[in-house]
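Exercise 7b. Backbone tokens:
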């Protein structure tokens, strides 16, 4: 148990965790309200419009990745987060004002979704990289998993509460309450002890995305992780579209949709807590989680009732968070610190930026063939992701026959991974040895 929560020994991380938990509850309440407003108040159950909203909200991380990663590496991440969290609070209040006054339209909601997306494009890589400023590298994977646990504890509470509030007081007030929860994160950022943050080397280069891209391109393991996450992120993780349209198919309202999101979070929370117990992130766990996601998604599409569908969503949530937490932890703990912000910006661009590609497709498939067909497409993407990972393991020579046996196989977790030097002048052997838990070699 102590190992599971070892990052809590750091004061700054404890404060951060509590602030993020409160803010995430509000964020999930708002996400539920926004999806329901677009689907039922601004349109007549138009899943394509919902997909466009998601594309506008999650597209900016992909378009702005060259800038946002450089900003996260170059500037004080705490100050970046103070600015982005304040901006997100202001946007939530803007949506609330338009909804409560009755003048919100679909084009205006599209504009606000784009505003949320642009702000989150800067917030996400800084927030992800800030974890490594608060805890040691040995605890970084644990901290990432606990962050995911916080996110999914909020997901367990937020959608259910948001769905009830939509019915009870209206969607506009949900946005007001979310704006208030941003104060928790702002207070946490102000209370953080800056003198206890770990020192880091700030990037002075101007190549931004190019440096991060060259680094990832030289790492076959990272390329495989990014491809797997993209496949599932684009086609499998369109839960707002899947859950809301399935709720309607089963004759449920906003509260039924919120409950499905909370049920999904039960499995997600279990996956995050289990990930927190692991000493490090492993690619084989990512591969297994991708396969489980694919199977569970296809099974969920065949469920005949609301409650049977909800039961399978627990497994879907578990596999999703296991996959994302493992991928995030692996990227953070095996990336050189000077480029961590840019590499994480690329990772977040893959996670969030895949939505503009997949969400409109999922919405279109839902409108044409129904939500079950769209869910099956996502499940197939999960199986393809698993196949991609297995192909890399076999091709890399990690999977081999165990000595002294004929048929048993073993997976060699200690096979060295070559990490190319980005700039021999900017890196020192001491920094690399202290921050990279895998062998590094100079590229010829």
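Sequence design result:
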């Amino acid at each position: 148990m102590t190992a599971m929560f070892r990052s809590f020994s750091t004061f700054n991380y404890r404060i951060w965790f509590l602030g993020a938990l409160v803010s995430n509850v509000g964020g999930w309440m708002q996400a539920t309200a926004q999806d329901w407003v677009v689907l039922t108040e601004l349109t007549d159950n138009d899943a394509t419009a919902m997909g466009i909203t998601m594309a506008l909200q999650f597209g900016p991380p992909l378009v702005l990745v060259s800038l946002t990663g450089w900003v996260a590496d170059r500037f004080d991440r705490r100050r970046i987060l103070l600015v982005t969290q304040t901006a997100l609070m202001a946007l939530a209040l803007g949506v609330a004002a338009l909804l409560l006054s009755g003048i919100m339209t679909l084009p205006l909601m599209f504009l606000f979704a784009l505003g949320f997306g642009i702000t989150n494009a800067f917030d996400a890589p800084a927030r992800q990289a800030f974890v490594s400023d608060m805890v040691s590298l040995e605890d970084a994977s644990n901290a990432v998993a606990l962050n995911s646990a916080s996110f999914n504890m909020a997901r367990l509470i937020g959608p259910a509460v948001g769905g009830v509030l939509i019915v009870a007081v209206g969607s506009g007030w949900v946005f007001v309450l979310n704006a208030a929860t941003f104060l928790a994160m702002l207070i946490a950022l102000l209370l953080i002890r800056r003198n206890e943050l770990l020192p880091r080397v700030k990037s002075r280069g101007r190549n931004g995305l190019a440096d991060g891209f060259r680094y990832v391109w030289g790492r076959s393991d990272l390329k495989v992780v990014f491809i797997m996450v993209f496949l599932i992120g684009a086609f499998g993780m369109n839960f707002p579209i899947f859950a809301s349209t399935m709720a309607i198919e089963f004759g449920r309202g906003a509260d039924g949709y919120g409950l499905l999101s909370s049920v999904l979070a039960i499995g997600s929370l279990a996956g995050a807590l289990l990930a927190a117990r692991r000493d490090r992130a492993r690619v084989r766990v990512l591969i297994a989680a991708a396969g489980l996601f694919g199977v569970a998604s296809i099974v969920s599409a065949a469920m005949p009732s609301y409650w049977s569908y909800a039961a399978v969503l627990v497994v879907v949530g578990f596999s999703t968070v296991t996959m994302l937490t493992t991928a995030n932890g692996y990227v953070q703990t095996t990336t050189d610190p000077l480029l961590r912000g840019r590499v994480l910006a690329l990772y977040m661009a893959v996670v969030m930026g895949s939505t503009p590609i997949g969400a409109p497709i999922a919405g279109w498939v839902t409108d044409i063939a129904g939500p079950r067909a769209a869910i099956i497409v996502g499940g197939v993407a999960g199986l393809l992701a698993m196949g991609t990972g297995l192909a890399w393991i076999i091709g890399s020579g990690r999977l081999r026959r165990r000595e002294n046996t004929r048929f048993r196989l073993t997976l060699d977790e200690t096979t060295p991974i070559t990490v190319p030097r980005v700039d021999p002048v900017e890196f020192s052997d001491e920094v690399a040895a202290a921050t990279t838990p895998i062998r590094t070699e100079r590229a010829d």
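Instructor comment: The domain at 9-193+206-400+409-435 is CATH 1.20.1250.20 (Growth Hormone; Chain: A;). Residues 414-444 have pLDDT under 50 and may be disordered.
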